[in-house]
Amino acid sequence: MEYRKTKQRQKILEILQGTTSHPAANWIYDKARAEFPDISMGTVYRNLAVLEEMGKIQRLSCGATFDRYDANVEPHIHFVCRKCSKVTDIHDALPSAKLKETISGIDMRVDTYDLTCYGVCKECQSSQ
Question: Residue 94: what pLDDT?
Answer without folding.
Answer: 67
